[in-house]
Amino acid sequence: MLKGIAHIAFVVSDMDKSLHFYSNILGFKKIYELPDDSGNPWLIYLKVRDGQFIELFYGGERRYTNANAAGFEHYCFEVDDIYEMSNLLEKNGVLDVKPNQGKDYNFQCWAKDPDGNRIEFMQIDSRSPQNNC
Predict the structure, then answer these.
(1) Is residue 131 part of a domain?
(2) Residue 10 lies in a domain
(3) Quick check: is 66 in a domain?
(4) How far, in Å, CA of 3 to CA of 26, rounded?
(5) Beta strand ranges found along 58-103 (DSSP E)
(6) Potential cystine with 42: which of 17, 36, 57, 73 (Cβ 3.0-4.6 Å)?
């Protein structure tokens, strides 16, 4: 059922420094950006390899006691069937967000691990930027 880790996401405190590190130093290619609903910078997608990405979100703060802290945000598993996965998560009492379609056309649902780390489960849509890069 699981196909692999699709992306890892970070809320960063300084996008320029983060892009320098991930793109210039590590060599990951910037493939697209998405604005928020108001048109402000929201996230940048970097390609690690076919089917694997790093998401960098704007707006992190260097405080490690709140949800806006710079650093780890969530990890994502790619799945074949978002509804099958959602049903499994719900059956086990760990589903936080039922399936919905994101701005990138992909379907997603969410859960948390026992330590509270957010996990996204994502079914790639044929129209998504991730599928067409």
Answers:
(1) no
(2) yes
(3) yes
(4) 25
(5) 71-79, 95-101
(6) 36
The predicted structure's pLDDT at residue 89: 92
pLDDT in tens, 11-55: 888 899 889 888 988 888 999 999 999 999 999 999 999 999 999
**Rounded CA separation 118/9 (Å):** 10
Predicted pLDDT of residue 61: 67
List the domain range (segments joined by +) for residue 95: 2-123
Nearest to 83 by CA among 63, 101, 71, 58: 101
At position 11, the amino acid (one-letter code) is V
**In this structure, is residue 132 part of a structural domain?**
no
Read off the tokens for 7: 């992306």
- Check: pTM over 0.85? Answer yes or no: no
Closest CA to 9 of 44, 50, 59, 40: 44
Question: Does residue 41 or residue 66 have the better pLDDT?
Answer: 41
Show the DSSP H helices in the chain as ranges.
15-19, 82-91
Question: Of 111, 117, 109, 108, nearest to 92 (Cα)?
Answer: 111
What is the domain count for the chain?
A: 1
